[in-house]
Structures are given as C-alpha cells and as structure tokens.
Amino acid sequence: MTEHTPNDPHAHGAGCDHGTPADPTGIRARIAALAGNTADSADQTWEGRTFQAHDNAYAEDDGSAPAELAEAQRRFAAGEGSAEAVIDAFRSARLLIPLVAHAGDIGVNAHGQEIDKTQELSIITVEGPDGRNVLPVFSSVAAMQTWNPKARPVPADGIRVALAAAEENTDLVVLDATTPLEFVIRRPALWAIAREEAWIPSFHDPEVFAAFVASIGTELSVLDVALSTGDPLSRLHGPELVVTLTLMQGLDRTMLDAVLQRLAQRWAQDDVIATRADSLTVRLRSSE
C-alpha cells in the first residue's frame, strides 16, 4: 500500500478544525448557563481570591498535585496509561486556576503621569499552536509558579474548570503547561466533564467510527476508512483525529477532489462527528 496526504489540505479537509459545532443536543447551552455563575460550589466568587484564602474545603491542602491525577498523568506520559484515565482523575481533582492581575482604573498623579489606581484579577487564556484560545490550569502551586510566578491560584474541581472554559469561550484546557506532564483537554472531553458523562476519544469511539463508515457507503471509490489519533501525547501537536481513506486505484485529480468534497460536507453535517471529534486531518491510501 502507498500512503499520501492530499496536495491541497484545505480542499481535502486535512487539518480541519470543527471549531465550536452546532449544538443540537443543547450541550453548549447547558454549559454556558451553568458557567454564568462564576462562583464555586459554596457560592463564593473567584474574583480577588487566593488559594490560601479559599473556603474550608481546601483549608488543609498544601498545594501539591493530587496523587491520583499525578499518577494518571505520569502513566500517560510514560505510555503506560490512557487519556481516559487522566480525564477521569481530572474530574474530581483539586485544580488551580491562575488569576493574573491587570490594570483597572487609570488615574493621573500630581506629575501628570498615568498610574494604576486599582488592579483587577482575571482568568486568562493563551493562544494555542492552532490559533485557538487555551485555558491553563495546574495540578500544583509549584507547576503554576513555574509557568507564571505572579499568578494567584484559585482552587476548583474539574467540573468547575470545564465551566470556566465555557465562560471564557474556549474549547481547550491545558493542564500543567510547560511541564513534562503537560496534557491538553479538548472540547469533547470538556463537555463530557461538565455534564458528568463518560468520555471516549473520537478515534476509539464506535459511534464515531460508525458515522464515518456510513459516510463512505455510497462512494464506490472509497474501499475502507480507519481512525487513529493525530495527537498521541495530547499536547496539541496535531489534530485530534486522523481519518485514513483507502481508495481504489485509477482516480484522477478531479474525481478525487469531488469524492473528498462530498465526504467533507457529510462529516460537517453529521452530529456525532461534529460533536465528538474536536479536529481532524485526512490521509489517503491507494489499494494494492
């Protein structure tokens, strides 16, 4: 078998980022509604708070990484554990959302110079390699201080983090950025966390696979479809999903383009694919 990627990745759907898909089941609406409350489970606002000043739920917490989450991250980074295990540990773990100070009201001093009369703390997002916003969170004070020593930690569990991401209009969360255990949580997993539902990676999800199989049913020139991960380290090194199509020999460029355009349209309109796959790229194989 020979393998190649299309010469025009945009025409063929390679590297396709679904962005935020249509939400026929109300997932996004539910998350956004919950995210409107920026308080924690005790109804205490995040703004202006520090880890040390938090409620009694974390009064005895020394700021070290939760053991179950740290072990799941370590095993995943070593190739011994699964992304699902990291997500499951993330759900209930005590996490730290960094708040960063920025200028509030601006005033003028006696010398006519502008000064910051107040400073405000806010959740921040950073730009990921694919151009989307990413919300950084951390498992420990040490990891957060390595990333930004001026950030102030606010503890929250994984569900709250997923809701905070929705409120910040971001579909990506990076856990322990810049550390050896860095792990990116994409939109489908965040939605599952927020709704307290099980999550299966798109490349292991039988319903996602069935949707792709159905999409090629009327394409006689497409002999097979296979799914695999495009980001095995979960660090945004590539799209989440790789769709490999096995094609019959003898297709010219015009025929190939037409097939791939039809498939791209079907995938974009399929609720299962749009909701459960964060992003995808297409690889082509020709049959022997």
TrEMBL record:
InterPro entries: SseB_N
Top-level lineage group: Bacteria
Ranges where the SseB protein N-terminal domain occurs: 69-192
Name assigned to this protein: SseB family protein
Residue ranges, annotated region (Disordered): 1-25
Pfam family, one: SseB
Basic and acidic residues: bias regions: 1-11
